Amino acid sequence: MTRLIAHVAILCALSTPSLAADLTAEFDARHKLCLESIAEDAQEAYEIGLRWQTEGGSHRAKHCVAMALFALGHEDEAAYRLDALAAGADGGSKETRVKHYAEAANFWLSAEEAERAYTSASAGLKLQYDHIDLRITRARAYAMSGRYDYAETDLSSVLTLDANRADALRYRADARFRQDNIEGAQADIETALNLDPTSVETALLRGKIRESVRLKALEVVEE
User: Which one, out of 39, 44, 88, 222, has a CA that is 20 to 30 A from the CA of 198?
Assistant: First the structure.
């Protein structure tokens, strides 16, 4: 009965534009609070999200539940729920669905599920083909699967859209390095470090590339 009353109240509110706008703002604020509570107590945030979901919290409540699950260490379950949310009837706007696919893809990567990360990222790119973060995530999924040539292609597409993405340059440098394209890897890693001098990951990769060049030079001298 409580759930029925809640649904009726929502339908009535949506019949009046001003009330619908107020309800959306209220849901957005509640969603924000739910997400913020994850940092303080992920278990409590999870339970809050579940209760809100039964009260008609729609995709916002489901999203909070998924994010809390990730914080609790359940990356695969969180990713699964985000994929389902993005594909479901109550997934929100196209922009919201794309965001959920991007989160799911990253969570799958965290769970070391490369193929599922690829599937989530590709689903999001079908909705927005020029989404840079999704394309980078798909490239990382390719790389995790050892498909470095495909990773390089996606990252080159990203850099066509935004030549100053230091992270894309770093990932492409790694993909090129693993394909023995040392010259290309060097060019990318130096540009990446110029764009983001504080990146430890970029500095470490540059060191790795330079060491490889040094060892190969020694091999030539010894021959």
Answer: 39
Token readout for 124 is 């999001």
Beta carbons of 205 and 173 less than 8 angstroms apart:
yes
Where is average pLDDT lowest: 57-66, 127-136, 142-151? Answer: 57-66
3-state helix, strand, coil split of the chain in percent (to 5) is 85, 0, 15
Residues 155/176, Cβ–Cβ less than 8 Å: no
- What is the number of other CB atoms lying within 10 angstroms of the CB of residue 25? 10
Residues 101 and 143 in one domain: yes
The residue-averaged pLDDT of 59-64 equals 89
Q: What is the pTM of this model?
A: 0.83
What token pair was written down for 89?
A: 């009837």
Whole-number Å distance between alpha carbons of 218 and 204 = 21
CATH number at residue 88: 1.25.40.10
